[in-house]
Write a structure and sequence with these properties.
- Helix 7 runs antiparallel to helix 8 and helix 12 crosses helix 13.
- This protein starts with 51 loop residues before the first strand and ends in a 7-residue tail after the last helix.
- The radius of gyration is 22 Å and the shape is globular.
- It has 3 domains: 213 residues, FAD/NAD(P)-binding domain (3-Layer(bba) Sandwich), CATH 3.50.50.60; 82 residues, D-Amino Acid Oxidase, Chain A, domain 2 (2-Layer Sandwich), CATH 3.30.9; 67 residues, no CATH class.
- By secondary structure, the protein is α/β, with parallel strands linked by helices.
- Strands 3-5-4-12-13-14-11-15 form an 8-stranded mixed sheet. A 5-stranded parallel sheet has the order 6-2-1-10-16, covered by helices on one side.
- It contains 13 helices and 18 strands.
- It binds flavin-adenine dinucleotide (FAD).
- The site of flavin-adenine dinucleotide has 39 residues, from helix 1, strand 2, strand 11, strand 15 and helix 7.
Length: 445
């Protein structure tokens, strides 16, 4: 059965108009690069059994999944109530995202390439360092637009409409969008952290979520900053973008009342002397999944699957979700192309969710734990200033090239060196000063 979806101009917001093409970013998409950086797939036997796929959510998970499926001949429709929009987000892409999807660096869309990071402890210690690989920071409207443009260039239809219900009980999936019923053979749920469109899935609860508050500030900066607070599961951040800053705070849900988070945020803004004229406030939810959720969450059924935030694919320590959204969308598409949707959770586990599960055990210890009589986060900032070996490790963690499971053995392997370097600098103030001064290197053009 063929369905003719009406596609709307993203700016029309609800006014249904037929449309052939629209460039969200107003930059040409190089369609020869559409498959570049995507996982190489083996074509399975019954990939044609399922032809029409509806995707709810045109964020990174949904858009990349759609692009991938459409470029393998599936008829794909992406439903998003806003399409390309400025979702509250840092917008930071680490090295693993750039390595897997080089078009994110090569695209002509505006982005900021940040090489220097500064960590600030709850007691005010600071350490600056150059990351081993730069972080690429996009405004989310630009990033979503880039991904949706690529999805369209690959053949996806995009529909600017809210999906209000999904019914998977019949021979075909039935969706309600914009007051009309739509049908497909399979539905991908990529609608973000707080969506429960299917009764047989469970929405993420408070224990698996973080609250975030922040500002988009129209000012320029080159350094990425992260500040820890004492006895606090979360952190403050300042992420420079091409023409503004995203400044915010994230905290485990239920840990602190909103007014307290806002106070920490405003103190940070004033300590860092961020000019607030024209700043826009935002607040949003971010998954911070517990190990049990990562391991036990059901993310696939006979004619549906979840990807990205909806599938709790977020690093519980850093809140990084963009890479995991892209990768889960990509892995899901690969499984569908091969006609093996049931293989998706296992592939996700092999690719990264076992590592995220390990990270969820670390998160609480990292933010609340003590080491040598002080908070771990404070010791971390101090060690960064006096141990080159430890600094190398943190540079890799921050740029996303160090996974959590091998972090433990790396820490143990270099514990002796780090401890010696720490002890040497402790007894020799001049060595500390030297190490601190040499920490940030000039960014390379
Ligand atoms: C404040 C904040 C800062 C963050 N900073 C970073 C960072 O710097 N780096 C990083 O890697 N990650 C960061 N993240 C995480 C990152 O934003 C998410 O992990 C990522 O956006 C997930 O992508 P997604 O495609 O799964 O979902 P989303 O990006 O949330 O996309 C879901 C889409 O679904 C649409 N939608 C929802 N419901 C419906 C419906 N019923 N019908 C139709 N459409 C619907 C929405 O409009 C949206 O476009 C941050 C998150 C927050 C909240």
């Amino acid at each position: 059965m063929t369905h003719h979806f009406l596609v709307v101009h993203p700016a029309a917001h609800g006014a249904w108009q037929p449309r052939r093409s629209w460039c969200y970013t107003r930059c040409p998409v190089d369609s020869s690069s559409i498959s570049a950086g995507l996982i190489q797939i083996k074509t399975g036997p019954d990939k044609r059994a399922m032809k029409e796929i509806a995707i709810v959510g045109g964020g990174p998970a949904g858009a990349l999944c759609g692009e991938r499926l459409a470029s393998h001949g599936f008829q794909v429709t992406i439903f998003d109530e806003r399409l390309a929009w400025e979702k509250p987000c840092g917008g930071g892409l680490t090295h693993k995202a750039i390595k897997a999807y080089p078009f994110l660096l090569d695209s002509s869309q505006p982005k900021k390439i940040v090489r220097i990071a500064e960590l600030i402890s709850g007691s005010g210690h600071r350490a600056r360092f150059e990351m081993s690989h730069p972080i690429v920071i996009y405004a989310r409207k630009v990033l979503n637009g880039l991904l949706l443009d690529r999805a369209q260039a690959a053949g996806c239809h995009t529909v600017c409409s809210r999906v209000t219900s999904v019914n998977i009980d019949g021979p075909q999936v039935r969706l309600m969008a914009g007051g009309e019923e739509r049908r497909s053979d399979f539905v991908v749920l990529a609608a973000g952290a707080r969506n429960q469109l299917l009764p047989e899935t469970v929405a993420l609860g408070a224990k698996d979520l973080e609250v975030t508050l922040g500002y988009f500030v129209p000012t320029e900066e080159d350094i990425l900053k992260v500040k820890f607070l004492k006895e606090f599961e979360g952190y403050l951040w300042s992420f420079p973008r091409s023409d503004h800053l995203s400044v915010g705070i994230c905290a485990k849900m239920g840990q602190s009342p909103t007014h307290e988070l806002r106070r920490h945020l405003d103190e940070f803004v004033s300590e860092e002397k961020i000019p607030m004229a024209g700043a826009r406030f935002f607040s949003h939810m971010l998954p911070s999944p517990e190990a049990q959720t990562i391991r036990g969450r059901r993310i696939v059924g006979k004619n549906w699957a979840m990807a990205g935030d909806a599938a709790a694919c977020v690093d519980p320590v850093t809140g990084e979700g963009l890479y995991y959204a892209l990768r889960s969308g990509d892995l899901l598409a690969q499984a569908l192309i091969e006609g093996l949707p049931q293989a998706y959770p296992e592939r996700l586990r092999a690719a990264f969710s076992a590592d995220l599960e390990f990270a969820s055990h670390l998160a609480r210890k990292l933010f609340r734990g003590n080491f040598l009589g002080g908070a771990i986060t404070t010791r971390m900032v101090q060690l960064l200033n006096c141990s080159p070996a430890f600094r190398d490790l943190v540079r890799d963690v921050f740029s996303g090239s160090q996974d959590y499971r091998s972090l433990k053995s790396r820490l143990w392997d270099q514990f002796g060196i780090t401890f010696l370097e720490f002890a040497r600098s402790f007894f020799s103030p001049s060595a500390t000063a030297r190490a601190t001064r040499s920490a940030p290197r000039e960014p390379q053009p």
